From TrEMBL, chain A:
Domain of life of the source: Bacteria
Entry coiled-coil feature ranges: none
Any matching Pfam family: SBP_bac_1
Protein name: Sugar ABC transporter substrate-binding protein
Phylogenetic lineage: Bacteria, Bacillati, Actinomycetota, Actinomycetes, Kitasatosporales
UniProtKB/TrEMBL annotation, chain B:
Biological process according to GO: transmembrane transport
Membrane topology: Multi-pass membrane protein
GO cellular component terms, semicolon-separated: plasma membrane
Record's protein name: ABC transporter permease
Record carries keyword Signal: no
Pfam family, any one: BPD_transp_1
SUPFAM superfamilies: MetI-like (SSF161098)
Transmembrane segments: 21-41, 79-105, 117-139, 151-171, 192-211, 250-271
CDD domains: TM_PBP2
From TrEMBL, chain C:
Biased composition, class Basic residues, residue ranges: 12-22
GO biological process: transmembrane transport
Region (Disordered): 1-22
Alphabetical UniProt keywords: Cell membrane, Membrane, Transmembrane, Transmembrane helix, Transport
UniProt-listed InterPro entries: ABC_transporter_permease (IPR051393), MetI-like (IPR000515), MetI-like_sf (IPR035906)
Protein name, per record: ABC transporter
Source species: Streptomyces fuscichromogenes
CDD domains in the cross-refs: TM_PBP2
């Protein structure tokens, strides 16, 4: 089985399985984020792919499904009904489900440094206009308003995802993901790109964001060292912050949903991010029954749900209210925040670079970056993507 | 008298100016080279809090070897061993095979040997990035994907052109009469190769071995594309793995960089002359 | 045939004896046998892929399924794409600017290192340091070092370095070229050092007796004598610049960014092939790279006689 680094809880469940099944052990191999997808592709191409593989669902998984490389799983096999339906959507194609959620819910939220915001006299922004105003004040205060690892490109994409949803609603990207490239020509796409450039132009990300690389942890460090006021990032950042700066996480870390946009068509409760990661089954696997046993009995079982909650992450399963109420750790309010955010959201959009087929991921990220750097005009973003999607 | 001192004074002025410029330039260049290396070492000794708060060039307030422990616990020895195996195997194959080819080219001056020589010349001009896709396909078809052999064979193949060229140019300078004398003695090609050419070419063999070794040791593209598992990773690839793994932890990544450089440092200290000769192998005869 | 004719002639040398004729055939055979392993290895992984890349450039292959025929679609796609031409332009730019930066630096440091002496030897050792690091190690180090928030720019007095050196589309390429120079200048300095040490001391002595100053001697003696070193070093720099892949890959986080500001041809090939999984199109880009490399080496060979088969005494 293959997974990403730092999936400690996943590793524990594999260890538990191996303890119970000493005759048929699962070997777990872990990879760095950047290389993982490419390695997986190559391994499938070389017919050396693992039995179970970690993925993000969406278009990338659909590529494998279309190539006949993935086996669908049924409720009888792995008990699908226990998972949050909006999450399973990312791994469902043509009515069949091709994976089991295997990670905490990962919507993207806006983190902030309470002390920095307080010193500048800024309230955590609830609206886009409020965000712009906060940017102006923080900038005047000499801090970077929002920490952004633009060098990695995908953190910038998160802004466009949210902005498009707020401007045009969730239908616009649904059309695109459904295989209709003309969705890129929707005026809302230009509207979103315009607002991204507006933020960048207002100095929201400081002068050096384009050099900040997420993998080097610099954007995270900017937030907890107080050099920046806010950061838009997935829920995994919470664990990073707790690990790197426990004191900060306890006293000065705040978080809110992405601001709403007045006049926009989107529901302000919509969220974007990674509904979850999935574990999918290789169609050529020789150990199917063992793999299914693992998926059914060891993924998101009672122990694992508790482990995720203890680690400050909300697992994608139904009926968590009582468990959440019983949590006693410092993470309680965070967990409740994430759970409510997801439960209340009418739409949970999978991040675009995962939702689209893999041959569009690079043009997407490149054009997002160019848009952020203001190398292309807002209207060119949609036009370029339309061309790339042809 | 005065006519004699005037030019001498201008001469000293020029000399002083030259010395100042040289000294200044030497200082700047040394700083440019040394400061990053110094920073690398110092950072690898910092704790992660120290890293975000301390002045980057100040010595660490509380030097720690924790980062090195993290790296060593992270499978460093496996990567080191893989690198050593891959480099040794590739160099051995290249040097032996290239010596035979070079000998054959030098001793048999016919149409065929000229053609093969030109093939290697052509090979010098092929950037290995350009053929990585077919090589990748080939390795998959040969069922060698994700094995150390998948790095060894292409690396050896791409080291051949330059190795053959250097050895040919060396063997060409061996006086013809030495070979002729052995022919008169009734020696065949193989005996000439082993008892004459190989011993004579020892310095050249040393330098090409070092040169090829460096290329393979530092090679990144073949391991990147032709292997996938952690237990098959060689050092340069492992560095990028560490980066992904430690993410937030720059000091640990820098410790991995330092550790990956230590073997070369050892070679440098023990055999600087051979290393320098190998680096500039054949290019500065 | 030839042997028959020869044996019928009066014996003039040992070569023409019947026994030696058999030996000649055996010799030819052993010569072939000796050349065979190298040819096999190089043929399989060097020449076959060279043809393969051309064939694949006419194919459709996503790295997952089977290989299909695409005709000229990849080529029209690649040649009609502005990104290809930009990548080609960037490759040329890196090549030429690197050469312009590294040559004077390497010459200067080489000249400084060449005379024997304790102090100069010490500097030579320090300047050698970059050669001990792999391209990946150098890339990771510089990427972290140039981080505007926690890198060198955070040092008091060096805040002017806290700039998006790798992040600004205008600066990134030059930063990359600088790091390339950091990596490779010491190597070329060694070449020049070796070249200088080979200049006969008598030339300098004679000139000194004639009253030539150090500058004159440098311009009149050292530089002309370094002609072949110059050619060798330049050839290696130009041809080698096609292979700066590793460093740029690491410095730009594998994307050739910001935007596409550092996406040179090899990187464009890698991203097309191994990230967007369009192997056919990537092969077309790779073919461009082959043509580029061959043209370059043909040009430098013409200009320098670098690869002459006969006397290797001066150049190689």
């Amino acid at each position: 089985m293959w997974a990403l680094n730092d999936q400690t809880i996943l590793k524990e469940s594999v260890d538990a399985y191996n303890k119970d099944h000493p005759d048929q052990k699962i070997t777990l191999r872990m990879f760095a984020n950047d290389d993982y997808k490419q390695k997986l592709r190559v391994a499938f191409g070389a017919n050396q792919a693992p039995d179970l593989f970690f993925n993000w669902g969406g278009g990338a998984l659909d590529d494998y499904v279309k190539a006949g490389k993935v086996k669908a799983v049924t409720d009888a096999q792995v008990d699908l009904l226990r998972f949050t339906p909006s999450v399973l959507k990312s791994a469902t194609f043509d009515g069949e489900t091709y994976g089991v959620p295997a990670n905490g819910l990962a919507p993207v939220v806006l983190y902030y440094n309470k002390k920095v915001l307080k010193d500048a006299g800024v309230e955590p922004p609830k609206t886009y206009a409020g965000l712009l105003a906060a940017v102006k004040k923080l900038k005047g205060d000499g801090v970077i308003p929002i920490s952004l690892a633009a060098n990695s490109k995908w953190p910038t994409l998160m802004y466009l995802e949210y902005l498009l949803d707020r401007v045009g609603g969730s239908d616009v990207f649904d059309r695109i993901a459904g295989g209709d490239p003309s969705g890129w020509k929707d005026p809302a796409v230009t509207g979103a790109a315009t607002r991204l450039q507006e933020l960048a132009g207002a100095g929201a990300f400081g002068d050096n964001a384009s050099s900040v690389n997420y993998d080097q942890g610099a954007s995270t460090a900017l937030l907890y060292t107080g050099k920046a006021g806010m950061e838009l990032m997935g829920t995994w950042e919470y664990a990073n912050l707790v690990k790197a700066a426990p004191d900060f996480a306890k006293k000065n870390l705040g978080y809110v949903a992405f601001p709403s946009l007045s006049g926009g068509k989107g529901d302000p409760k919509d969220i974007v991010g990674n509904p979850s990661n999935f574990l999918s089954l290789n169609a050529a696997s020789k150990n199917k029954s063992a793999a299914l046993t693992y998926l059914k009995d060891y993924v998101m079982n009672g122990d694992q749900v508790d482990a995720y909650l203890a680690a400050g992450s909300v697992p994608p399963v139904n009926g968590l209210d009582s468990k959440l109420a019983a949590v006693k750790s410092d993470d309680k309010s965070w967990l409740a925040f994430v759970y409510k955010l997801v439960q209340d959201s009418p739409n949970f959009q999978l991040s675009w670079d995962q939702a689209l087929p893999s041959d569009q991921a690079d043009p997407l990220l490149t054009n997002v970056d160019k848009s952020f750097l203001r190398q292309i005009k807002p209207e060119e973003f949609g036009a370029n993507m339309y061309k790339a999607a042809q | 008298m005065s006519t004699a001192t005037a030019p001498r004074r201008t001469l000293t002025a020029v000399t002083t100016l030259r010395r100042t410029v040289t000294g200044g330039a030497t200082f700047v260049w040394t700083a440019l080279v040394v400061v990053p290396v110094y920073w690398l070492v110092v950072t690898s000794l910092r704790g992660s809090t120290d890293f975000t708060t301390a002045s980057p060039l100040a010595p660490p307030a509380h030097p720690t070897l924790d980062n090195y422990r993290t790296v060593l616990d992270g499978g460093f020895t496996t990567y080191l061993l893989n690198s050593v195996v891959v480099t040794a195997a590739a160099v051995a194959i290249t040097v032996v095979v290239a010596l035979m080819a070079a000998f054959s080219i030098v001793r048999h001056t016919n149409r065929w040997s000229r053609l093969t020589f030109r093939l290697y010349l052509l090979g010098l001009a092929i950037p290995l990035q350009a053929v990585i896709i077919p090589v990748y396909l080939l390795i998959i078809r040969m069922h060698m994907y994700d094995s150390l052999l998948a790095i060894v064979l292409p690396s050896a193949a791409f080291a051949l052109p330059v190795t053959v060229m250097i050895l040919v140019s060396f063997l060409r300078d061996v006086p013809r009469s030495l070979f002729e004398a052995m022919v008169v003695d009734g020696a065949g090609d193989w005996r000439m190769l082993f008892s004459l050419a190989a011993p004579l070419a020892r310095p050249a063999l040393m330098t090409v071995a070092v040169y090829d070794g460096l290329q393979v040791w530092n090679g990144f593209l073949f391991p990147l594309i032709l292997t996938q598992s952690g237990d098959k990773a060689v050092l340069p690839l492992a560095l990028t793995l560490f980066r992904g793994q430690f993410g937030i932890d720059v000091p640990a990544t820098m410790a991995a960089v330092v550790l990956s450089t230590l073997p070369m440092l050892v070679v440098f200290v023990l055999a600087r002359r051979q290393l320098v000769a190998g680096l500039t192998a054949g290019f500065s005869k | 045939m030839a042997t028959v004719v020869r044996t019928s002639r009066p014996v003039v040398s040992h070569r023409a004896r019947p026994g030696a004729a058999r030996g000649g055939r055996r010799r030819r055979f052993s010569g072939l046998l000796m050349a065979a392993p190298a040819l096999l290895l190089f043929g399989l992984f060097g020449l076959v892929p060279l043809v393969g890349v051309l064939v694949l450039s006419l194919a459709r292959w996503d790295g997952l399924g089977s290989v299909g025929w695409a005709g000229l679609a990849n080529w029209t796609g690649v040649l009609g794409d502005g990104a290809t031409w930009q990548a080609l332009w960037l490759t040329l730019k890196v090549m030429v600017v690197s050469w312009l930066v590294q040559t004077p630096l390497a010459l200067a440091t080489g000249v400084f290192q060449a005379p024997r002496g304790r102090l100069r030897a010490l500097f030579a050792v320090l300047w050698f340091l970059p050669l001990l690091l792999s391209a990946v190690a150098i890339g990771l180090t510089w990427q972290a070092l140039l981080d505007p928030s926690f890198g060198i720019g955070a040092t008091p007095g060096l805040h002017w370095l806290a700039q998006p050196l790798l992040g600004s589309p205008d600066l990134a390429l030059y930063t990359v070229i600088f790091v390339i120079a950091w990596q490779f200048t010491p190597f070329h300095a060694l070449l020049y050092q070796a070249g200088i040490r080979q200049i006969p001391v008598s030339l300098h002595e004679a000139a000194a007796i004639d009253g030539a100053g150090p500058v004159t001697r440098f311009l009149r003696i050292t530089l002309p004598q370094l002609k072949y070193t110059f050619v060798t070093s330049s050839t290696l720099m130009l041809v080698g610049s096609l292979t700066y892949f590793d460093l740029i890959f690491v410095l730009s986080g594998g994307t050739g960014g910001p935007g596409t500001a550092t996406r040179v041809l090899p990187l464009a090939m890698y991203i097309t092939g191994f990230q967007a999984h369009d192997m056919g199109r990537a092969s077309a880009i790779a073919t461009l790279l082959v043509v580029f490399g061959l043209a370059l080496s043909l040009l430098t060979t013409r200009l320098s006689g670098f690869t002459r088969m006969d006397s290797q005494q001066e150049g190689l």
